[in-house]
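testing teh design pipeline on a random one, pls ignore if ur not involved
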């Protein structure tokens, strides 16, 4: 299987079968994101401890496959991470999409890096960048609140 096909498969899987969909129990912080250009919406819920470790993370939303897949991937990878690592992964992902950088964090395993890279193809389609980054920007708002 070619890399491009693998990436498409990952996006379709997360888009059709989103992980962590719904409101997590006992969430302590949340934020909403909306892309008025296409109508995509996301609501991120996080249960954070006093040190901002992400104990639980989920989302609700509607939109295109890229938007839903991105939110699903975000919750899957960042659940259980502490604030600093979650922030570093978020920044690394946003740089990947916006600045044609690569995933540089050693704290992610190869499967996680491949999953994040699956969204990198949106850089070739500027109108789709917001679809892939909206949930990540929304998570940043969640983490800044606490």
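output:
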């Amino acid at each position: 299987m070619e890399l491009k096909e693998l990436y498409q498969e990952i996006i379709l899987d997360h888009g059709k079968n989103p992980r962590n969909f719904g409101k997590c129990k006992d969430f302590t912080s949340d934020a909403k994101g909306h892309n008025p250009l296409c109508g995509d919406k996301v609501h991120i819920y996080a249960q954070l401890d006093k040190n901002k470790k992400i104990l639980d993370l989920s989302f609700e939303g509607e939109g295109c496959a890229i938007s839903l897949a991105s939110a699903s991937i975000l919750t899957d990878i960042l659940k259980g991470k502490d604030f600093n690592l979650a922030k570093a992964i978020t920044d690394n992902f946003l740089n990947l999409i916006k600045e044609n950088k690569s995933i540089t964090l050693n704290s992610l395993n190869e499967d996680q890096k491949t999953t994040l890279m699956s969204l990198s193809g949106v850089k070739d389609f500027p109108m789709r960048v917001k679809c892939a980054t909206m949930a990540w920007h929304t998570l940043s708002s969640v983490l800044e609140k606490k």
